[in-house]
Amino acid sequence: MNLQGMAAVVTGGASGLGAATAAALAEAGAKVAVVDINAAQADAAAKRLGGLGISSDVADPEAAERAFALARAAHGPVRVLVNCAGVGTPGRIVGREGPLGLAAYEKVIRVNLIGTFNMLRLAAAEMSTLDPLEDGERGVIINTASVAAYDGQIGQAAYASSKAGVVGLTLPAARELARFGVRVVTIAPGLFFTPMMQALPQEIQTSLGESVPFPQRLGQPGEYAALAMHIVANRMLNGETIRLDGALRMAPR
């Protein structure tokens, strides 16, 4: 897809993987709406790109509909959606205080899985009404899973199952939306230098980076963005989850 003048929406677009992807899309000529739970950060990120900042809870149906309406009014109907919004709250199923609180589990599932589906369904509905482009393509949806979907560690029960849900959503969504010319692809990053990672002590960041077979370092958000841009450009990529992890396989803990 030629992105010049096309409307794109990036959730979690104020920082980390989302911010890098929003910047890459804007550089390619797309009109970008940065959707983030933090209004000030969304506005600041959008200002840097010359785009639109929107504060929204991706898992709230009314808030998400409002976000798409604002983006559509400013930039036109969405052609590209990149879902990067997510949380990674850890917690053992049975810890020192007893079983994991169900509300903690529900929060992670709500943001990571329900939020992804909520934005996907609304974007797909909008894309399905658009005029077809080359090969009949009407839109591209990129979701973000994690290697934890496959190699979930102790304490990652909620996070791993939420991301496994995103992986499981990919193929059926791509198959269903194929009749509209809408592609669905998921990226499963490994250990990346994101705000969550930055909060860790430097020695832990270094140790985690050295656990990656090659390259022996943390991934950079720009490398995620580069893959997202290739997915947008390559129409044969559809219905697949792509690991972006330097051959990393996570240990149990």
From TrEMBL:
InterPro entries: NAD(P)-bd_dom_sf (IPR036291), Sc_DH/Rdtase_CS (IPR020904), SDR_fam (IPR002347). GO terms for molecular function: oxidoreductase activity. Gene3D superfamilies: NAD(P)-binding Rossmann-like Domain. The keyword Transport does not apply. The keyword Oxidoreductase applies. Keywords: Oxidoreductase. Belongs to the short-chain dehydrogenases/reductases (SDR) family. PANTHER family: 17-BETA-HYDROXYSTEROID DEHYDROGENASE 14-RELATED, SHORT-CHAIN DEHYDROGENASE/REDUCTASE. This is SDR family NAD(P)-dependent oxidoreductase. It comes from Limobrevibacterium gyesilva.
